[in-house]
Amino acid sequence: MRNSITPKEISWLSFNERVLQEAADLNNPLFERIKFLGIYSNNLDEFFRVRVATLKRITQLGSKAIKILGYDPAVVLRKIQEIVITQQFYFDRTYRSILSELAKHKIVLINESQLNEKHKEFVQDYFLNKLRPHIMPVMIDQLDEIPPLEDDMVYLAISLKFEDKKKRPINSLIKIPSNVLPRFVVLPEIKKTKYIIFLDDIIRFGLPNIFYMFNPSEINAYTIKVTRDAELDITDDISESYINNVVRGLQKRKEGDPVRFIFDESMPSHLLKLLMKKMHFKHDDTIIPGERYHNFKDLLTLPDFGMKELSKSTFKPIQHPLIEPGKSIFESILKNDILLYFPYHSFNYFIDLLREASIDPKVKSIKIALYRLANNSNVISALINAARNGKNVTALLELQARFDEEANIKYGNILREEGVKVLYGVPGLKVHAKLCLIERIEGRDTTHIACVGTGNFNESTARLYTDTMIMTADRKITKEIIKIIDFFNRTYQKEQFYHLFVSPFNTRQKLNKLITTEIENSQKGLPAFIHLKLNNLVDVEIINLLYQAAKAGVEIKLNIRGMFSMKTENSSKIKAIGIVDNYLEHSRIFIFCNGGDEKYFISSADLMTRNIDRRIEIVCPIYSKNIQQQLRLIFDNCFKENVKARILDDKLSNKLIEIKKNEKPYRSQFELYNVLEQFHRGEN
Fold it and tell me: Distance between CA 286 and CA 261 in Å, rounded?
């Protein structure tokens, strides 16, 4: 098999295309299709702010860039632009199709030129009383250069024309204040038809009320948007506090270099040239023509008018058989390790555990690593309550959690005010591990309970992402969790880990050994397989080892949601799929045959170089046979999927797996409810 890889940025665009395919799928409920358009747009914004920005930085290294990446970043940047423009056409076509479907259900999006008298009166009132105070035009012609536009905000480029053709047009910019007002405004209903208008179009309607002093004969407005480099430059300076360093980095982000410029393709060429000149854009920058509206991530806030028949089905979480309502969760965990699989199990079990710990007089301390938190987080409330009840509470808040830095600083301040000891990450290493440790003392006995997860301690995303969390009192695990927490306090002290894989210390070594063992077993004629469920698989060293394993006859099954850099078509031993459906597939599960004595792991880490070598991550072994069976059911359930699974091939074609003759449709995310319920009833 040829040892080659697909650039991870290109494979990521292929993943986002799968999201776009879900928006186009007529079998999905209408508001789910709208949601997928919003997710696609939001994903693409972050892609440019982070991945494209990083590529642009690396190109400045010249020939060294190819050695670092294994491919030419300049070539990849050109390919990105081609793919994004192609996907833009697909997006626009899907969006227009959805508008037609909405109209069939008497939900109509209209613009300022389609308003009847009743709507004009409403829009005029809205503009004058709610919107106009936020409109502050920047007069382009009076400036040598345009002040930096805010990242990810939409602006209207305004052109004022006059009856006197000799008089030059006047040009202006207006920011659409969607950060303070809703992007979509509901208009009065007429004959049971619901009407919605973009905030952009209310501004267009009111422009004569802004520029009246110029007495123009014609006013035209075109949307533009700039996406900026969002990577934080955080240098380690021992003379400066880490938190101040991050705050300074956040301020720089707002002024980051532009990495993408999107404009309304109906904009006249003279206005486009003027904007590019005064914003210092060049023709080799990422300049993307679009349609009338940008920032379609705001579709996630489109009013659904409570029309449940057009929205996704929701399921009541499954009652976990080992956690009895009204009984101590501590006692349950002391008897058995417990695996929660969100959203099929409720995240409230974890909140209940923290609540119990906060009021149990025998609990002495709670220590937790936090990465991304929900708004108005119940986890934070439980930790505060524990501190108020005299518990020793320590919270590590990662200040490099991209786009959540400010929220984590805010939560850190709140916790410190309540007496919680707050650690702000580990300088030089992003802490991505998801762990919580509770210490309980009864007489002379000290018991520790650990929670280790694949996803964040976030009740909001736990309803939207599939993730695993193990709750355990197993001393093999808890002793090593204590070592990790000690490392947070004393980063100079390196520990040995015999059960946990802990990045950046031993994860690569341990994974390499597991893969090598499968290769050796296959060569000996023993059964050998590697089954991985991940978000991303792009690490070159791991990929090359998997190529060797496939060549040696090891059966490899891969369920990869996002970036996937392997080339698989030359090996019958590699089966790779990607699933995009109701929930974001986020759980990470590793299963190795190990000569028949199978080894199971859950992981906070994807198989990316940064996760293995430059972050604090945990790959946690699963020793409970019952939980191993549960993970096997979850993994195998995904590979029965024939509705939402795409084949991950070398051409990035994203072809759906075909339903075979006499085969019933099997939608794994829906079927898993029944599978887990049966398993919990002992019917597996």
Answer: 6
Roughly how many angstroms between the first and final C-alpha of the chain, as a whole number?
A: 38
- The catalytic residue among 320, 432, 531, 586 is 432
57: tokens are 């930085």
Mean of the per-residue pLDDT values for the chain? 92
- Give me the residues paired with residue 421 across strands: 394
Q: Residue 548's closest CA among 523, 531, 565?
A: 523
Q: What was the pLDDT predicted at 494?
A: 79
User: Using the 8-state DSSP alphabet, how is residue 257 labeled?
Assistant: P
Query: Quick one: pLDDT at residue 66?
Result: 86
**In a shared domain, residues 128 and 169:** yes
- Tell me, what CATH number does 421's domain have? 3.30.870.10
Query: Which among 393, 337, 401 has a CA at the least distance from the CA of 368?
Result: 393
253 near 151, Cβ under 8 Å? yes
Residue spans of the chain under pLDDT 50: 1-3, 234-240, 253
pLDDT, tens digit, 9 for 90 and up, residues 155-205 = 999 999 999 888 999 999 999 999 999 999 999 999 999 999 999 999 999
Q: Looking at the structure, do residues 165 and 39 belong to the same domain, yes or no?
A: yes
Instruction: Indicate whether 84 and 47 sit together in one domain.
Output: yes
Helix (H, G, I), strand (E, B) or coil at 46: helix
Query: What are the two backbone dihedrals, phi and then psi, of residue 183, each rounded to the nearest 5 degrees?
Result: -70, -30
Q: Are residues 174 and 261 in the same domain?
A: yes
User: What CA–CA distance (Å, rounded) separates 384 from 397?
Assistant: 14
What pLDDT does 495 receive? 85
Domain enclosing residue 215, as ranges: 8-310
Q: Using one digit for the tens of pLDDT, what is the confidence trace for 565-622?
A: 999 887 899 999 999 999 999 999 999 999 999 999 999 999 999 999 999 999 999 9
Classify residue 278 by burial, with Cβ atoms within 10 Å: 0-12, 13-18, 19+: middle
- Residue 432 is a catalytic residue: yes
Which pair of structure tokens corresponds to residue 393? 């509470």
- If asked whether residues 298 and 336 sit together in one domain, one would say no
Provide the token pair at 357. 């710990």
318 within domain boundaries? no
C-alpha to C-alpha distance for 288 and 495, rounded to whole angstroms: 50
Do 454 and 568 fall into the same domain?
no
Question: Which token pair is 543?
Answer: 């990929």
